[in-house]
Sequence to fold (401 residues):
Amino acid sequence: MPFVLKRVFRSTVLDVFEVTNLELGTLNAVYGVVALVSYLFGGPIADKYPPRKLIGFALWATALGGLILASYPSLLTLRILYGYWGFTTIFLFWAPMIKATRVWGGKTSQGKAFGFLDGGRGLVGALFGALGVFIFSLFIIGVIEEAALVDRKEAFKYVILISSGIVSLIGVLVWFFMKSTDENEKEILIEKIAFSQITTVLKIPSVWLLMLIILCAYVGYKTTDIFSLYAREVMLLDEVTSAQIGTFLLFIRPVIGITIGFLADRSKTTLWLMISFIISILGALLFASGIINPSTTSLFFMGILITATGVYAARALYFATMQEGSIPLVLTGTAVGMMSLIGFTPDIFADLLSGYLLDNSPGETGHQHVFMMLAVFSLIGFIASFAFYRLNSKTTSPDDF
Fold:
């Protein structure tokens, strides 16, 4: 609800909610601030309670917010809504999801487990995006380019409501089918929450490096939000075609995530993480160079593919390195909370910064600045990944399963 619809329908969202890129960035800043606190306290909660209960409640609460979004509230109400989503999608959802995936992956299949997780999330996002585009085009009246704002609002309202309904249904499925045995829960859950969990996790050097790696990779992921806007403003494509660009990204994400997961399990996860950042740098520099324009459509799609490959591969792998980084399984939730506390701060500043760059330098120039920002963060991520690789090549992971 807070991300996929905006990623696929960015230009539409700007129009129907009557906000600028910078104002849209403030929504995510509010989300990020609430998420920051939620990461800190939600991690230990995930080590105490079964994942299915936390995830089920999170999905229902998140879907409820869609009803407010569909009413086209004021900017102030939107900010409150995004703060609410920062709680429902992080405090109740994030760490339980990561921990459940790590348990599922076992000792030898962390790459595949997190590759399937991120790839699966991408596939579901793609299906939501494709469904959204279909619903939007189904309910829009007349030619899309000539549709009145009120007609576009009405069509997009159906996109929001149907998405909310599906999220609620998934919550029901999780509650009844994502079960684990009592014996398994005794092995992965702590008896009580204690401050010592946090201090133990913060003594692990890998945790600090992963904070920086996740931060840089997440800036890349947030930057992919502007591809549909790039298609609209620079490539001069219509709204539906621009939305289809965002949906295309979601469909290639599962292919990249699953493929990189299998490759990582065959060698060393951190090695592929470094390669991912290098690919990200190359894609970012291609867009930042300014050679992609309406007359170079093939190069545009090639640039998207290169950049997305690097960004999505890095996103699929950073949590898969926890076993390699000697982080105890039973404290996975707490570790995820600590790493996410710093790693996902781009939720606060990335959209604000890209919104400022886009609004301050309208058109292609603003987009070039955003992609140069991506190149810089990807370079930092590569350096941190290399340091992680060197640190953990000297040690072996503990048998914590």
